[in-house]
Design goal:
With 315 residues, this protein is an alpha/beta fold. The protein is built from ten helices and ten strands. Strands 3-10-9-8-7-6-5-4 form an eight-stranded parallel β-sheet, with helices on one face. Strands 1-2 form a two-stranded antiparallel ribbon. The longest helix is centred in the C-terminal third of the chain and has 17 residues. The protein starts with a strand and ends with a helix.
Amino acid sequence: MLYRKLGSTGLKVSEISLGSWLTYGGGIAEDTAVRTIDRAHELGINFFDTANAYNRGEAEKVVGKALSKYDRSSYVLATKVFFPMGDGPNDRGLSRKHVTESANASLKRLGLDYVDILYSHRYDTETPVQETLRAFDDLIRRGKVLYAGVSEWSAAQIEEAMRVADKYLLDRIVVNQPQYSMLHRNIEDEILPVSKKYGIGQVVFSPLAQGMLTGKYKSLNDIPADSRAANDKMNHFIQRWMNQEAIDRVNKLRVIADSIGIPMAQMALAWVLRQDGVSSALVGASRPEQIEQNAKASGTALDDETLRQIDEALR
């Protein structure tokens, strides 16, 4: 496993990181989740991701329990705040109250004194950015959070946050978590340039497009029984990719992967990691064998001809 700096910070994270969205605390059995996390740690993956909203805190409990056996310095852990955690008017968003209370609740579920990264899971149009950044800064100064991040913020929103942080001498955002894959390239035009300007690292989620880029879906009429698309608890997000255009692109990509002798998922992850602004590719794995395959993408380089063929297939 190779490691990269998280943006301009001194923190080093594994090129492949393991997330818990849709899977841990609900999508799969807890013992399978723990075995997958254990295997990831054995493979040298040191970066684990969760969120308070994943199964209303249950994912945090599973991740915290699984990692409790390891030395705290051996892994980097991220969680998030924004989405509703209750029915009250202040049980959501990025107000100082909700950020502080959510962070404390997350630490309790995780069984930890601090998390390495706390993300704003989305941008909150109802809360001033200064208020949110001040809450994050306070958590950092109290040692409960080490680094501040955002997820799915626009380039303009990131610019706003950096101006506010500098004006009020608050801790800056150092990491962004956007969606990025061969089938979803929205960050290339604006997010990557503005992030490079401010030294913000990208930890990209859904680099395999919810499993579409593993090559397991060869046609709309042939859905493997053990796949995410066939799992009622996890299939609602992959439906956006279950169309003939995406299938056709994937079939073209499969030919390219076969020609260079690597699994399609490995090629897709290597393609994401080709961007020097990407610090880590965040994958979801529902069993240990999947994380073993994904980990092989670390250090895989795609030559210029392969990249040209991929661009042609995606056009």
